[in-house]
Amino acid sequence: MSNLPRYYFRDKNGYYNYSLFNYPVIWWLITIAGYIGCNFLGKKFLLNLNYFENISGIVALTLTVFLFVKLIRGVKENHGLLKYLSSLMIANDVRRALLNGMNVNRVKDAPFIEVPNVKATYQDDNSILLIVGKLVGMHDLDELSEDINSSLRGNYSKFAVVSSSISVNGINFEFYLENVEQSYRFVVKSGNISPFLSKNKHEIKLAKNLIWNTIETPMLSIVGRTRSGKTVFSEYLLKVMEKQGWKINYYSAKGDIYVRKFHGQSEPSKIVESLEKWLKIMKKRNKKIADAGVKTYVDIDLPDIALVIDEIGLLNGQLAVDAKLKKRWENVITGLMGAGASSGIHVIALSQRGTKDFFLPPSALVNARDAVIMLGLSADSGDDRRSLMPGFEIPHRAYGQGQGLARFVTSGKRWEEPNFYEAPYFEDYNNKKD
After folding, report:
1. 197: left (phi over 0), alpha (psi -120 to 50) or beta
2. Which of 53, 181, 329, 427 is most deeply buried (CB count within 10 A of its CB)?
3. In whole numbers, what is the pLDDT of the chain averaged over residues?
């Protein structure tokens, strides 16, 4: 995208307009008209206008090639002619909104206004990448997001900014727009999760627009109160991991069917003891990786291992009466969270709250914040968000069962910031609520 801004000049009525002569298609029409006119007048009045006719023809041909290449490129980038034309209209609407904001707030009655260039590109039917050139004085991403959202009307009102950032080179703002009226949740029918399995066993599909890359982001934190949909989501996760060849160990101080099914423990001392064994296995796997001269477990085809630790709040309460056991817990979970990534050992931590007393110790939180799902009331809890999604201002919102926020730092720009998320829904799970 060209970073040259557009200049809108003020007319006698006080309105700011962008000259039509800045558009190549206008000059193409003029040269076509010039060529036809010279040809007609030359024949009609026997005038020698060959020079002007040739110049007009050459310029018209050059502009035709330029516009054709631009059209083909635009159609290819936007996956279709209609989407390309739609992207031009969106970009124009956004420019007009930015112009109005600049006119009212900063440069009212100036002879001209400098407006950043804007380019919209459809990523697919339900998402758009919007690039806005950065000008002096433009710093507030939230304010720009509001201007962009206000410009999306009519057929485009279904789109809204879901994330924003400054480009790597620092000269553009990048906004990701998504169809907020479209649901991206998976609907599991008859308990069959086969349609949602990934060909890459290291990738877990969590929604139509979200894939958990377990190599880049090996640990996952899940927080949700009672009846938030956490248990349903964890069942989906366990089924997918099992089908994709993962080894699973499930720990819960509450004790449930998954503890028995996935070789886990429910007694606090036995949970800690089992995790300490896994810490030793992790060190052996890392040594094996180092001896093979490779970087990660993927390079020598070691299987993924999921250590699912549920009801951490209850576990912390039981550990509080035994200082030595609590210290062992803090040491082992910190070790697994800190060095388990390269060995293929993934800690999946679940709790009803994300605060200090209910979740992992502070020493283990660093790697627990890279992939986070918060469901129900937890997603609207300032205390939970400050612990697991710090640094983000998120407006109040009521979340239904299976709804909340998700943040995955390696699942694309859209998920680098907390965004609305809907967990997979089991059609036949109505009577089994968390």
Report:
1. beta
2. 329
3. 91
- Classify residue 245 as left (phi > 0), alpha (psi -120 to 50) or beta: left
- d(C-alpha 282, C-alpha 112), whole Å: 65
For residue 245, the SS3 value is: coil
Per-residue model confidence (pLDDT) at position 101:
77
Tokens of residue 388, six digits: 């697991």
């919209």: which residue's tokens? 120
Q: Where in the chain are all domains bearing CATH 3.40.50.300?
A: 187-426
Identify the band that residue 88 occupies on the pLDDT scale cut at 50, 70 and 90: very high
- 267 and 329 in contact (C-beta within 8 Å)? no
C-alpha to C-alpha distance for 136 and 155, rounded to whole angstroms: 32
Going by their DSSP bridges, the two strands 247-252 and 305-310 should be labelled as: parallel
And the tokens for 209? Answer: 């627009």
- CA gap 371, 407 in Å, rounded: 6
What is 187-426's CATH number?
3.40.50.300
- What are all long-range contacts of 292-301, with beta carbons under 8 Å and residues at least 24 apart? 295/342, 296/215, 296/341, 296/342, 296/344, 297/342, 297/343, 297/344, 298/202, 298/215, 298/344
| Span of 54-58, 104-108, 325-329, 418-422 with lowest mean pLDDT | 104-108
311 Cβ contact list (under 8 Å, min separation 6): 252, 253, 254, 350, 351, 352
Placement of tokens 């410009």 in the chain: 151
Query: Residue 29 pLDDT more than 80?
Result: yes
Distance CA 163, CA 346 (A): 27
